[in-house]
Amino acid sequence: MKVSVIMVSDNMCKLLRQSLAALKRSVQHLDAEIILVDNNSDDNTVETISREFPDVKITTTTGGLSHCVNQGIKMAKGEYLLFLSPDAITKKETVSKAIQFMDSHITAGGLSVRMLDIDGNYMQASKKTVPRRWVTLLKLTGLLKQFSKSRLTDHYIARHDDEFDTTETDVMHDRFMLIRKSVMDVVGLVDERFNRYGANIDLSYRIRLAGFRNYYFPKTYIINLQYNRSGKFSWNNLKSFYGAMFIFAVKYIFRLPALGEKPAQELYPAYELKG
Predict the structure, then answer these.
(1) Calpha distance 275→273 (Å, rounded)
(2) How many distinct structural domains can be found in the chain?
(3) For the chain, how long is the longest CA-to-CA vector?
(4) pTM of the predicted model as reported, rounded to 2 decimal places
């Protein structure tokens, strides 16, 4: 099987139906499977998707986003894993073009693609590097040297290259991440301590540590129907954001492998913020 598409839904049935309809067209000529992990939704997601998209493999669970993603990974059989947001619309050749790029770049561990908003405007978050506050933390901990300084220009948004330039990137955005299954076998599952924020940063970082390259691939695109659903300044968001920073720093400052070396797959102690 060429690609396993993994989607996580949490009461997003209406948007998910639109996303799946577009995805089915995008993978119709590929040997593909679609895996939906439903996070205990109460909007009839499972019943609706089972009826309208009988080929979609559905499993249910309860937990954070990273936990749900890992359940999908464990079910996947594809050469590539595509982590796709349930509010993302893929175009007809989006998935095939991304796979063609990966097939022709053997050192590529993963890629993300150009994003447009619902009005067709380019979203600069397509080319994420590291959030500004994370950069400050990485400077203080000495971890910054493990990232490309040229790709930290303007910190959170990489403006140093044109929208349509294919470039390496430190961090793949989490709306569309296409990663080789063999690379995931090397770096391990998504770290479930990163619940709402940081999981894509940590995974992107581990892929680079293992000697592979991450890419921003703009020759195709997705459309985001709904971006940043949760309140940016809510307490839960702030707690998750800064908690992820703390976990990342603790995880790597005490055991920091050099880039190009495959990291030892060890379990780190869990750190959680109370309250």
Answers:
(1) 7
(2) 1
(3) 52
(4) 0.81
